[in-house]
Amino acid sequence: MNFALYKASLKAHSKGLSLYLSSIIIYMIGLFLVFPSVSKSSGISDLMKSLPPGLMKSLGIEGNMANLNDYLNINFFNSLFLYILMAYCIMTTIKLVTRPLDRTSLVYYLSSPVSKSKVLFTQFMVFFTGLLLISLVTVLSGILGAKLLLGKHTFDVKVFSLINLNIFFIFLLIGAICFFFATVANTESLAMSVSAGVVIGDYAIDITKKLSTELDWLRYVDIFELYQPEKITKGTFPLFSTSLLLLIVSGILCLVSIWIFKNKDLNL
């Protein structure tokens, strides 16, 4: 890794990263502020009970809205947080890899004394740093928000942190997949189309398969099948082995992407 390039890329990436972080913090504060009224509302509970079980499962509406951890699972981890991370993975990998290649091509890399392999690995580490920072800020925001704004309510910090860890490794793999497409594609628009299509398509598969037991076979092509907040809450999910598997596959994809990019012909 080239540290000079790492610092320069991280600085250029900081504005966009700040937007993701601020969105998460603001949204989480809003959820904490409305939780007391939501937890006491019988109307919301009645509405949830009236929905078909398959629809509730597909939308991630499972649990007790009066429980703070379940409330955050439903309204944060299963909703906006996933969308923010999808956008981060797709947009960041394109900005770090495909955009300079599409706009400056070989000149961008020939003007640098750093090898293409080091450039790409450095850019992946910039992506990794941003994803790690998002996860850490999310955990800290949740812990501080629950303590300062909802001190009287029970909040399981361990479960909250483990669910966030599960999401981190899932999106590390998703980011590695987007990175792979960014190195293979020759244009920014193509990389955007393929990455967005794969990520959003896989999420759509995850929602669809939960609507009926007849669609259970779709779990074999669903990355989000590894996202199991309910099982983590109950302590029945093999989080360590799953995280290790996701880390290994992400590392392999990163190495394959570097090898492809190293041997790729670039045009002036």
From TrEMBL:
<feature type="transmembrane region" description="Helical">
    <location>
        <begin position="119"/>
        <end position="143"/>
    </location>
</feature>
<keyword id="KW-0812">Transmembrane</keyword>
<keyword id="KW-0472">Membrane</keyword>
<dbReference type="GO" id="GO:0140359">
    <property type="term" value="F:ABC-type transporter activity"/>
</dbReference>
<feature type="transmembrane region" description="Helical">
    <location>
        <begin position="17"/>
        <end position="38"/>
    </location>
</feature>
<feature type="transmembrane region" description="Helical">
    <location>
        <begin position="237"/>
        <end position="261"/>
    </location>
</feature>
<dbReference type="GO" id="GO:0005886">
    <property type="term" value="C:plasma membrane"/>
</dbReference>
<feature type="transmembrane region" description="Helical">
    <location>
        <begin position="80"/>
        <end position="98"/>
    </location>
</feature>
<keyword id="KW-1133">Transmembrane helix</keyword>
<protein>
    <submittedName>
        <fullName>ABC transporter permease subunit</fullName>
    </submittedName>
</protein>
<feature type="transmembrane region" description="Helical">
    <location>
        <begin position="163"/>
        <end position="185"/>
    </location>
</feature>
